[in-house]
Design a protein that fits this description.
This protein is α+β, with helices and mostly antiparallel strands. The chain has nine helices and 18 strands. About 9% of the residues have low confidence.
């Protein structure tokens, strides 16, 4: 469910960026067919962009694979498990509520769209229908005229002169299949109703439809002055009864149409600005891709070791001022009472120490990871020579950064109580050629 919400957020973000880019760069030009194409592919790009992570590219580096932390603490298991389960339940309830609200919003938008379609069919059924070629002319008492696929709803309140021009305009909508665009936009809104820009997007798409239909009519024998007069008259007649699903004649759109009709055609060289939109779409898609790194531990040889580093195992005790007598939990299998006495592997040692006690590098090496890793807490992984790695978990804070070279005995961090930890301690592991080994067998000092 979390992945679904992340996908919705990412897709919505891509849509918003591209739509704002369209409004900024392309909405004022007279390339209506190109703009229509951009608006139609915009939702498609926004839906696919977050999935571009499936397209990987080769990268020479490898990464640390962090396994799930499975440590349990003796005499404290119940507290730890109860805390984790309680947190998990709270997270689950929040996600369930959020998902329910999302479904409620989508259902409302879908029902509203279906209701608009139902009113449309009901209006057709209650009105007189005549036929003109492949068009059905439906005579209504509405003050505005509109179309839906090959149905043209004609207002009884317009005079014959207006009627001819407006019908030609609506025929253009039918021939250009604008109703398909509207249904696609409405479908997209059902899923992304929470994004306020989708409603502005719908208006922009309908504006393009109007510009195309106007150009269609004016490319014939109709005089621009006569056509503009009809548009101005429709501003006076428009009422609030229009349906957002199929109505094109509303006051704000008509004003924009008049501006576009009287506007000088945009120079063709301006089409070069569409490259900005293309580069923006490509950049957003690339933002979700990831390198094809090798999913395994770092190689057995340490990269970029500084001169003077000693090639030997990690032999120091990892907590400054502490010794083996401070080990509270050893390496090996132990019975877990919460798992019906099932033996579980403890892949390191736990060293009790006050919060803030310095943690040191047990051998020369390079910091391969220094980051928060959920139940591991703040984790440091050092890559040493000859296939050795050391892991330091539950730290309070770091004293090093990734890719930094460290020498044996350097302070790399401080004992903490982060992640799945119920008390201040260091969880320390030694890996040799990608296999966890008993740190006691390596420690000599």
């Amino acid at each position: 469910m979390t992945s679904f919400f992340i996908y919705l957020a990412q897709s919505s973000l891509v849509f918003s960026c591209l739509y704002i880019l369209y409004v900024t760069v392309s909405s004022k030009v007279t390339f209506h067919q190109t703009n229509r194409f951009l608006l139609l592919i915009l939702p498609i790009v926004s839906l696919l962009a977050p999935l571009s992570y499936l397209l990987t590219f080769e990268a020479p580096s490898t990464i640390i694979q962090i396994p799930q932390f499975s440590e349990f603490i003796e005499n404290s298991e119940t507290v730890l498990v109860d805390t984790i389960e309680e947190t998990s339940t709270q997270t689950y309830n929040f996600k369930t509520i959020l998902f329910s609200l999302y479904l409620l919003g989508s259902s409302f938008v879908l029902l509203r769209t279906l209701h608009s379609l139902w009113l449309l069919f009901l209006l057709k059924k209650q009105s007189k229908v005549t036929f003109s070629n492949n068009f059905q002319l439906i005579h209504t008492n509405y003050t505005s005229t509109f179309s839906f696929f090959n149905w043209i709803f004609i207002s009884k309140h317009i005079n014959p002169t207006e009627n001819t021009l407006i019908i030609e305009h609506e025929k253009a909508h039918v021939k250009l299949k604008h109703s398909i665009d509207v249904l696609l936009a409405e479908t997209y809104i059902v899923f992304f109703w929470f994004n306020p820009l989708v409603y502005m997007y719908r208006k922009s798409l309908k504006s393009i439809h109007e510009y195309q239909a106007d150009s269609w009519v004016l490319n014939g024998t109709t005089k621009t002055s006569n056509y503009l007069a009809v548009l101005l008259q429709n501003i006076e007649k428009e009422t609030a009864t229009s349906n957002s699903l199929y109505s094109y004649f509303n006051q704000s759109v008509i004003k924009k149409r008049i501006d576009m009709i009287t506007k000088k055609p945009t120079a063709k060289v301006y089409k070069l600005t569409y490259s900005v939109f293309i580069m923006g779409a490509v950049s957003l898609c690339l933002a979700f891709t990831k390198p094809n790194t090798t999913e395994k531990l770092l190689p057995s040889t340490t990269p970029q070791l500084a001169k003077g580093f000693v090639l030997n195992p990690p032999t120091l005790f990892p907590v400054q001022g502490k010794s083996k007598k401070d080990i509270s939990s050893t390496y090996g299998k132990r019975r877990n009472p919460l798992k019906n006495g099932k033996k579980m592997m403890h892949n390191g040692i736990d060293i009790k120490a006050p919060i803030g006690t310095p943690v040191i590098a047990t051998a020369d090496g390079v910091i391969a990871k220094a980051a928060d890793q959920n139940k591991w807490g703040n984790l440091i992984v050092i890559e040493h020579s000859d296939g050795y790695q050391t892991w330091y978990a539950h730290l309070q804070k770091f004293n090093v950064t990734k890719n930094q070279s460290v020498k044996k005995g350097d302070v790399i961090g401080y004992v903490g109580n982060t992640g799945a930890s119920l008390g201040a301690h260091l969880h320390y592991e030694v890996h040799y050629k990608e296999v966890q080994v008993n740190p006691i067998n390596v420690i000599k000092k």
